[in-house]
Specification:
Helix content: 10-25%
Number of strands: 20
């Protein structure tokens, strides 16, 4: 099946039998270094009066969850308990108002080298929306599918009316203090693809050369932008279940993240993997062909098996934190990393790494030149409400202060 024809396919599955084959396959990617990321500062909308554009600027999240004693409450009860939010329904309606408009999808990861590893295809917006709502695997031909950096608000009046810049940024734009470079939409599948992350992190790639499980996770690799960025998670198909996980590093980490092997100058060749802590893993109910989440028993067995592989730090040595229920692993070998990162690199990244999970309605400020990695995730401890992959939709505003 060609990439163009594959883009119109609906409900392409990642068969359970293939997943079982990956689980049983021995691989070199069965251990790694765990980064000790610190939480990103969370603030309330009422406490936010300005944005810091200085070289000392740090990221922060404008939270929609209760904040007490400086620690956000990330339990599922802090998010509206409903399968589909009004935000999601309104966004889908706005997208359907321009169903015939052609959009360009990313198929695969742009940071992976090799024939057929990455492609761009054009399809009608309505086809993509239908696929998002019905797909069980969230991937096509074993590759992630993403509508990224799409200037939808410039093209669709309904979107322009629905999505406005956050108040603190809108004030700066109206006052002429910043120049807005671009408003970009990022819309892609969330659930069924990311539940495979546990298996990919522990087992890696099949020895027969088949498509790696890791390629099924919707990831934007570590990169930095020449603009300041306000990123808002506009909507999710199930706010209690799906979110976006961010890992950030300050510009001072550039010496550890840049590499001649990088596909683009602003993109790192260092790969990371998210692994849900076992106690947060649940099983997805569905047909025999659905991708599924390993049960606690299966996960525990594979995590335990890591103790037989030499590595400075293993998954079982990490602990769940209040701000991040995922372990952040640097695998010993990946599709984008040729050599094992040095101990000094791992130490530096662990010292300065920040992480957060962005829920529907929350906003993240990323200062200019900060490195960041983004991944759609199933929130650990939450059971998907349907057998479909689900989706998230984010909006990013890229801008620079006039003084620069």
């Amino acid at each position: 099946m060609s990439s163009r024809l594959a883009a119109y396919a609906i409900c392409i599955h990642y068969p359970r039998r293939l997943l079982a084959r990956h689980i049983s396959t021995q691989s070199s990617i069965n251990s790694g270094y765990a980064l000790r990321a610190k939480p990103i500062l969370r603030v309330t909308p009422a406490s936010l009066s300005k944005l810091d554009f200085s070289a000392r600027a740090e990221p922060f999240v404008v939270s929609c969850t209760p904040i007490g004693n400086g620690t956000p409450e990330l339990s599922r009860t802090s998010i509206p308990n409903q399968a589909a939010s009004m935000r999601g329904l309104e966004l889908l309606q706005a997208l359907r108002s321009a169903s015939d408009r052609l959009i360009e999808l990313e198929l695969g990861r742009y940071d992976v080298r090799g024939p057929g590893a990455f492609d761009r295809i054009e399809i009608p917006l309505g086809h993509y929306v239908e696929w998002l709502e019905r797909s069980k695997s969230g991937c096509i031909e074993g590759k992630q599918v993403y509508l990224a950096q799409w200037r939808g608000a410039d093209e669709i009046p309904e979107l322009r009316r629905l999505v406005r810049p956050p108040h603190v940024l809108e004030k700066l734009i109206e006052a002429g203090e910043v120049d807005l470079y671009q408003t970009s939409f990022f819309i892609g599948p969330a659930g069924a693809v990311s539940v495979l992350t546990l298996v990919s992190a522990l087992q890696g790639y099949a020895s027969d050369g088949s498509v790696p499980v890791a390629a099924l996770t919707l990831v934007t690799p570590i990169h930095h932008d020449p603009y300041a960025n306000v990123y808002h998670l506009q909507a999710s198909s199930a706010p209690c279940t799906y979110g976006k996980h961010f890992v950030l590093f300050p510009p001072s980490m550039s010496e550890h993240l840049t590499s001649p092997r990088s596909v683009q100058p602003n993109t790192s060749s260092l790969d990371l993997r998210l692994v849900p802590h076992p106690r947060g893993i649940v099983e997805r109910a569905g047909t025999s062909d659905d991708a599924y989440i390993p049960t606690n028993k299966v996960a525990d067995e594979h995590i335990s098996s890591l103790s037989h592989t030499p590595a400075p730090m293993f998954l079982e040595e990490t602990t769940e934190t209040e701000h991040d229920p995922f372990s952040i692993l640097v695998p010993l070998s990946t599709v984008t990393t040729a050599t094992v990162p040095s101990s000094s690199t791992i130490g530096a990244l662990s010292t300065y790494a920040l992480s957060c999970i962005l829920h529907e309605g929350e906003t993240l400020y990323i200062p200019r030149s900060w490195w960041h990695r983004v991944e759609n995730v199933v929130l650990p401890g939450s059971a998907p409400t349907t057998v479909t992959a689900g989706w998230t939709a984010g909006v990013g505003w890229w801008f620079l202060p006039r003084s620069n």
